[in-house]
Amino acid sequence: ETGVTQSPTHLIKTRGQQVTLRCSSQSGHNTVSWYQQALGQGPQFIFQYYREEENGRGNFPPRFSGLQFPNYSSELNVNALELDDSALYLCASSSPGLASVNEQFFGPGTRLTVL
Amino acid sequence: EDKVVQSPLSLVVHEGDTVTLNCSYEVTNFRSLLWYKQEKKAPTFLFMLTSSGIEKKSGRLSSILDKKELFSILNITATQTGDSAIYLCAVWDQAGTALIFGKGTTLSVSS
User: Fold this and answer.
1) Longest dimension (CA), chain A
2) Mutation for testing the B interface, residue in A2, A104, A105, A110 having most B CBs under 10 Å
3) What DSSP line would sit under B78-104, residue for residue?
4) pLDDT, tens digit, for every residue of B5-40?
């Protein structure tokens, strides 16, 4: 059973650019969630995808968007990057069924730096 | 508003000490509380607690939930330098969609 994987591991962008981060969920998991973790803070929920549809969204502007593919992998896209977008972006997957009574397993994250 | 508060925010102990990390929460329609250990990047799952008063144990780590007082504790006995990490506490939000995290407790264990 493979765990959650993310790519790339590190990324440096400049203000105004666009970025795409990728996540492959753990085998058998059909729910993928994305979190942003700023330095010294706990992860903050961006959105969740279940069966290729957005299934909940946190307090993030529309320039944060996502996709989930039929194989349950997912992308996070951020447009018009701002300095405050610099953070560790974590992807998490959950097993089928009611996610809220299951554990969520996290990938290694993508460290995004915006200059 | 759903929230999780962890204390202390940081802690420095010597190898062999026992530590207790605290997590209090406010959430509508409580479902479960989760503890994670974060060393470099990926938070790794430790425990999920759904019922009050039932201790979960894994080696030197244990955790318990009090749903009446709305808190949980994570105990680590005989600490080792490898226990140095950020410990995160989280609860599912009222919709059961998002994990709400505390800021974490940074534990440093010196040899």
Assistant:
1) 41
2) A104
3) S--GGG-EEEEEEEE-TTSS-EEE---
4) 999 999 999 999 999 999 999 998 888 999 999 998
